Amino acid sequence: MSVTPRSFHLIAPSGYCLNQAAAFLAVERLRAQGHQVNQTAIIPRRDRRFAGTDAERLQDVNALAALPTLPDIVLAVRGGYGASRLLPYLDYPGLAARLREQPVALCGHSDFTAIQLALLTHGVKSFSGPLLAGNFGAEVVSDFTVDHFWRALTSPEFTLGWQTPPQNVDVSGTVWGGNLAMITSLVGTPWLPALSDGILVIEDVNEHPYKIERMLLQLAQSGILARQKAIVTGSFTAANLSAYDNGYDFDSVWTLIRQITGLPLVTGLSFGHDRDTVTLPLGAHGNLKVEGNQASLRLSGHPTLR
Length: 306
Prior knowledge:
This protein is α/β, with parallel strands linked by helices. It has 2 domains: 7-154, Rossmann fold (3-Layer(aba) Sandwich); 157-300, LD-carboxypeptidase A C-terminal domain-like (Glucose Oxidase, domain 1, 3-Layer(bba) Sandwich), CATH 3.50.30.60. It is 29% helix and 24% strand. It is built from 9 helices and 13 strands. It has helices at 20-32, 54-62, 92-101, 113-120, 132-136, 143-154, 180-185, 209-221, 250-261, and strands spanning 7-11, 36-38, 73-76, 105-108, 126-128, 157-163, 169-179, 198-205, 228-237, 265-266, 280-282, 285-291, 294-300. The chain has a 7-stranded mixed sheet. Strands 2-1-3-4-5-11 form a 6-stranded mixed sheet, with helices on both faces. Helix 9 (250-261) links the parallel strand 9 (228-237) and strand 10. Helix 8 (209-221) runs parallel beside helix 9. It is globular and about 50 Å long.
């Protein structure tokens, strides 16, 4: 698809970017397409396993409230770990006031989910989508991922479609979620949105099915799932099952969660830590339908690039 040149502003609130070559390749590619990419000096920044000290990484995010001119897109370099350390110190009033006044596409996933959901508690919508190094800097960039990224950021309304086992589903609500481990880590904190009638979309990486089940049980037993309209599962990559599991797999988990919650649970969305991933506007309005083996999620009410 034809894309208007945009301004990208990089932030690195989480882990150090081990694959420096991928990150700088992503910058090169974006610039070759006519985009402006600033804040590249943060890519090699490092403090132990983090992409800089807590103060430096916090400033990456808080500085958005005072930038003379906001970029079109704020893009996280990578995930990893570190965002949780920053949550008590984010300038929520300043960020909310600035980003609501001049909407900007705040994009990333993985560990960045923690910041995205904390901002959503203050009404700031963002996009769960590609990261600089892992997606735009991939050895072979996914056309699927790039096309869905630009469609989400530029379309006031768009629909995702995918194949899923048949069931009868037609619900509407607020779309939210992201990385399941990060969602679960926010239970009992002020930074988990208290959404009712939500459509919860989840994904994860390097987590065995029993760990995913345990996290979903925590969401169920803490009353969070009881407030949802449906669950959509994305990619759960790099999970190593063994003979010990004896047939216990992700389908077993989905069956149990359906049984104990009574919620529609729709599987198969390409979303998460995989080469192909859609971009989801967190906080948008969604209408989720399943007809036959075709699922669709219509999204609206999110910020779009001018």
